[in-house]
Amino acid sequence: MDKKTYLGFRKLTSHLHFHTAMIENTVVLAFQDAELIGSGRIEALKEDEEDIVVIGGENYIKRNCTFVYAR
Hints:
With about 70 residues, the protein is mostly beta strands.
């Protein structure tokens, strides 16, 4: 599988990707073990001990999930 894609979608792989998606209100999908567990626009990024992405009021830990652009 191509490292830049996941299930045919382009992956968010850097902090810049996450920040740009948040600023541009881009819809992203969150997968865990190839299962879609969330989707929507990134509301916040919490970068403390655990890098957390907030989508639709839900917290997703970056290292446990794969994030991709919906379009």
